[in-house]
């Protein structure tokens, strides 16, 4: 049986390996021709920048260039100013790395590369200059030139030679995600959905699509002109997760109590979502008929409205939104397929409803990661300065790089450990090249022929996600040793000293990470949940309007992040009871109540405000690790709010508030029946006891 690492080489893997090697050799040749002091750095950079998708290479290249220049500028500014105090200089360099790492972790788009590169570039340039600060400008300029050559060569080769565009890959993922959403919708309408697995998969897919779409403006395909439409389609699909989960819940609550006409409507919807016509109409006519039928069946809100009527109105309103979103997604996909440069008037507003900060950001962990990087750099620099070790700067460089490179992971230690192991495994191969093979070559073509077998083979494994980390560690270990030739120190003693410096630097990063930065999946999952609870609590007390889309997208991102962590965390009692999708529904209903409350001028507004205050207190308790069910007094507050809202004169805001109130009741008390207000407290006690 073949292992994944030993499977036959695919055409795409072979093509990537050849392109990456060609870019590396071009960078090496240009660096040699320019007489730069460290040409093999250009080669290493070309491999680091290379990736299978040309759009991703181009987008990252822009920010890598900017980050490299910024890091060089920082080194040139700090080194001369603190040249007389190596201790202060190394501390300042470490602080620069920590601050840049902190900022990069607060941006989960390609822009993060700018600050990460600015962080460890100052280490690559600044630490070697600690012992010889007079050459900092020349050294910094040379490093920037070498790195930029590598970036530009990789970008040009991957963009021109058989480019693999982001666009087709993204559209394929978009179609698959839309198909999954349609399948889950049909299963939810028929009561057969596997809620947990479908929700988590859809959340992960939408988050991955958002990340892929950040590369689209830099792509080489025609899809880059469709960026607005693609993002609008992703935004619409994002609403399907809480919407379909809410419909599933309302159908469960109303099971056995649905009017026959609503059941017939659900059957029509099921067929329409599956692509079948409704009662013989064409697609557009079928949509209009569904919308008209939903409007006809929606119950009117009046003085005697109870929870059953409110829940039915909530269900039908959600069904109307479901129809609108699926139709919008189909229209946007058709627009993307046609490749038109402008959107129809009906769809154009969808592309303008963009919200910022759509990703979950953890400032606390970003700050702690920056501190861990500073601590690791301080430890290795103290050893370097205290012992006068000639290769101490190389160890400090490696510590800075590895503290930054894996900082986005919950537990960076396994990744650093893997890199350390395969760096050690690269030592014999690097020694063979440095001490035996390359000294006998006297021309660049012979150098290329000598490097080709090893680097073309490693390039194939770099192209495979399962083996990429191991192959890159081997590849960088060899290239790092070859750079000794640049300095004319390709002897065994220099090789051994350089290898020890690399190992010490990586091992220091690993040790510091294990001591103060590694956290488990369960710990991260709880932190994600508490972040969502804190945001809901803040929304209940918000005095200004809540931006449309920002909370939804952040919570959706948290659902996707949670799914992988919950799988790794194993059985945990408190995590098993958590439901981030339900928290998302709570937040959406809270936001809707807040918006409606400001438009209501009658006696219902104070009741809604008191209810929101009690809900906020509950979620503040959750975020403070005081887990528990909502307090019993919340339900009578809901009853009072519904009674007063029902007595209000008709308005769109009043109906939206009733719909949101019914959704909030189901999200907080899913086991309650449609009890009369006077028996609500008793029903709650029975549900909690059960």
Strand composition percent: under 5%
Distance between the termini: 51 Å
Low-confidence stretches: 1-5, 676-690
**Outline, from the CA principal axes?**
elongated
Radius of gyration: 30 Å
Task: Report the strand count.
Answer: 0
**Average pLDDT, to the nearest integer?**
82
Structural class: mainly alpha
Order of helices and strands: HHHHHHHHHHHHHHHHHHHHHHHHHH
Biggest beta sheet summary: none
Number of helices: 26
Helix content: over 70%
Q: What can you tell me about this protein's structure?
A:
The chain is about 75% helix and about 0% strand. The chain is built from 26 helices and no strands. The radius of gyration is 30 Å and the shape is elongated. Mean pLDDT is about 80; it is low at about 1-5 and about 675-690.
Which terms summarize this structure?
690 residues, single chain, 73% helix, mainly alpha
In short:
By secondary structure, the protein is mainly α.
SSE blueprint and pairings:
Layout: H1 11-33, H2 39-49, H3 54-81, H4 86-105, H5 112-126, H6 136-160, H7 166-190, H8 195-213, H9 227-253, H10 260-273, H11 283-297, H12 307-338, H13 363-387, H14 392-405, H15 413-437, H16 444-462, H17 468-482, H18 492-516, H19 521-540, H20 550-569, H21 573-577, H22 580-599, H23 604-623, H24 634-647, H25 652-668, H26 680-689
Helix pairs in contact: 1-2, 1-6, 1-16, 2-6, 2-17, 3-4, 3-5, 3-6, 4-5, 4-13, 5-14, 7-8, 7-9, 7-10, 8-9, 8-20, 9-12, 9-22, 10-11, 11-12, 12-25, 13-14, 13-18, 14-18, 15-17, 15-18, 16-17, 19-20, 19-22, 19-23, 20-22, 22-23, 22-25, 23-24, 24-25
